[in-house]
């Protein structure tokens, strides 16, 4: 947008869009790049907007749960949201039994279908001949009238011109529930397979924390665009802390913020990119790997156990 | 082989189904049905090998090999007395009190590789199993649990959540009293001196040196036994365990104390 008006308006607009301009043409495609750039150089603004200076040493994280000796951990870059260029802040090891399992697409399908259907209650109900109003009297005498013999005007044979006059013999009866539960370990494996698939298809990104410089939703959109993350991003954190990203993501439809307990296969498949924090990775590894080596349940897990977490 | 078709002069018309009725219409009742009369296979009672099979006492087998496996993996702690509760918590055995299970029996499979010193309490034990455990310096006891006590023993947390006081363990029925008062079976109602004699006899019979457990450092643990009316090791009948507040409530009324200590 070419700012028309006085120098004050121009300066204000330049301040607002300075960080967008600083990214160059590759990033902010939504903003029309006018040939007349901002009057001030972009460098000084960049230093001001960073929340903390870039660390000198890279972030290196090893797996919190011991890795079995016959497998080696998978690795991923640690990025940051503080600046659009802040990729490759460090490296993290990811546990192979969570992030490098066999790509069981049948299990993904099972879990996704379960998530869709187990909550479904269909409220369709159609009246049978006993419930439709009327139809107690025999319409005409049994013999002699020349017409077919009938006992009531509400039998299901009677559809006539109006579809309401008869009744359904075998229609949907009352609210039906489609509730069923897949075994716990199948659901856990579904999560592991989804995480693996996201990692292996380059759709998983790990960030160190959720701090962003502004609460502007456009910043997140432009960052996702610049880093080529995809059309929709799912950001997962263990307990939500910064307000900036909360307000920024609240206004957006394609970028969503969820707690780690709310991670599910459907959301992971729906969003093109998955972004996890380092705390989330630790949490997920711990929780998902526990199921591999736990005892079977003597009684439901909702009741207290002395030796289980 | 050519499939039988219902076409043509010889295979057609009624197609081998007969004339009307359930035969033609495919609605005949199940095999053995006699039109409502009590059928033959239900009228004749079971006899001999099979009669009363659903009322017999069953004991889930526990082999010495499985016990050694559990101890080696660290699922069962040999430094504490091994009870049916410990075995269930380690998922070593699955006991179903509702299916006429009366407990666990020791089986000889793995007697040659067994090498663990344990204080174990089961419901039945064979002679060789007793000999193997005593040879390694352990102690075996056989005791009786009635079905209600067995259920409480297997799933103690569920029982404590009910909020009922721990009941007394019942004494064995007539046909089992003889078994549990016999020292050769190491019954819990047997005379301790006769049990000591039986240990020596077994050692002589199988030809091993009986180790002296009194000189053992874990002697106190090895000699802990339950009272005939007690279900859990640290708790007495009549007490209530409160899981939410983590407290144990004991009765103070005289009549209750008299009843629970009888």
UniProtKB/TrEMBL annotation, chain B:
InterPro entries: Ribosomal_uL15, Ribosomal_uL15/eL18, Ribosomal_uL15/eL18_sf, Ribosomal_uL15_bac-type. Its main location: mitochondrion. It holds the Pfam family Ribosomal_L27A. Keywords: Mitochondrion, Ribonucleoprotein, Ribosomal protein, Transit peptide. One of its GO terms (biological process) is translation. GO terms for cellular component: mitochondrial large ribosomal subunit. Residues 1-34 are annotated as: Disordered. Residues 61-141 form the Large ribosomal subunit protein uL15/eL18 domain. Signal peptide: none annotated. It is found in: Mitochondrion. GO terms for molecular function: structural constituent of ribosome. Belongs to the universal ribosomal protein uL15 family. This is Large ribosomal subunit protein uL15m. It comes from Pelecanus crispus.
């Amino acid at each position: 947008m070419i700012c028309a008006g006085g120098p004050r308006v121009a300066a204000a607009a330049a301040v607002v869009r300075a960080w967008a301009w600083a990214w160059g043409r590759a990033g902010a495609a939504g903003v029309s790049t006018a040939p007349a750039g901002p009057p001030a150089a972009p460098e000084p603004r960049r230093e001001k907007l960073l929340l903390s200076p870039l660390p000198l040493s890279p972030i290196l994280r090893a797996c919190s749960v011991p890795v079995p000796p016959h497998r080696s951990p998978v690795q991923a870059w640690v990025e940051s949201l503080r600046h659009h260029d802040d990729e490759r802040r460090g490296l993290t090891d990811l546990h192979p039994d969570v992030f490098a399992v066999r790509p069981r697409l049948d299990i993904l399908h099972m879990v996704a279908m379960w998530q869709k259907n187990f909550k479904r209650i269909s409220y369709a109900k159609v009246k049978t001949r006993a419930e439709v109003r009327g139809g107690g009297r025999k319409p005409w005498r049994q013999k002699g009238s020349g017409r077919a013999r009938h006992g009531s005007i509400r039998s299901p044979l009677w559809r006539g011109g109006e579809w309401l006059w008869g009744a359904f013999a075998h229609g949907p009866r009352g609210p039906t529930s489609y509730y069923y539960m897949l075994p716990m370990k199948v659901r856990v494996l579904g999560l592991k397979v989804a995480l693996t698939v996201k990692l292996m298809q380059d759709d998983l990104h790990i960030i160190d924390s959720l701090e962003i410089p502004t609460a502007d939703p456009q910043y997140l959109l432009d960052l996702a665009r610049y880093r080529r993350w995809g059309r929709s991003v799912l950001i997962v954190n263990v307990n939500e802390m910064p307000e900036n990203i909360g307000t920024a993501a609240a206004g957006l439809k394609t970028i969503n913020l969820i707690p780690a307990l709310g991670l599910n296969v459907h959301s992971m498949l729906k969003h093109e990119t998955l972004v996890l924090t380092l705390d989330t990775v630790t949490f997920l590894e711990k929780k998902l790997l526990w199921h591999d080596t736990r005892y079977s349940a003597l009684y439901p897990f909702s009741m207290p156990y002395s030796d289980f977490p | 082989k050519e499939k039988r078709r219902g076409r043509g002069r010889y295979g057609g018309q009624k197609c081998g189904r007969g004339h009307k009725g359930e035969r033609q219409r495919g609605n005949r009742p199940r095999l053995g049905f006699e039109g409502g009369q009590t059928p033959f296979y239900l009228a004749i009672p079971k006899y001999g090998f099979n009669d009363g099979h659903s009322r017999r006492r069953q004991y889930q087998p526990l082999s010495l090999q499985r016990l050694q496996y559990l101890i080696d993996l660290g699922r069962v702690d040999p430094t504490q007395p091994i009870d049916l509760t410990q075995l269930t918590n380690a998922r070593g055995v699955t006991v179903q009190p509702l299916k006429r299970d009366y407990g666990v029996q020791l089986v000889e499979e793995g007697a040659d590789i067994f090498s663990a010193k344990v204080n174990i309490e089961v419901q039945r034990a064979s002679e060789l199993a007793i000999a193997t455990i005593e040879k390694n310096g352990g102690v075996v006891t056989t005791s009786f649990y009635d079905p209600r006590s067995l259920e409480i023993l297997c799933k103690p947390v569920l029982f404590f959540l009910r909020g009922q006081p721990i009941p007394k363990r019942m004494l064995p029925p007539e046909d089992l009293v003889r078994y549990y008062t016999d020292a050769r079976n190491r019954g819990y109602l047997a005379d301790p001196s006769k049990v000591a004699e039986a240990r020596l006899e077994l050692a002589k019979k199988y030809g091993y040196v009986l180790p002296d457990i009194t000189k053992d450092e874990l002697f106190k643990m090895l000699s802990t036994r339950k009272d005939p009316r007690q279900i859990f090791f640290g708790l007495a009948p009549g007490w209530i365990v409160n899981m939410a507040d983590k407290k144990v409530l004991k009765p103070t009324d005289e009549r209750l104390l008299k009843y629970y200590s009888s």
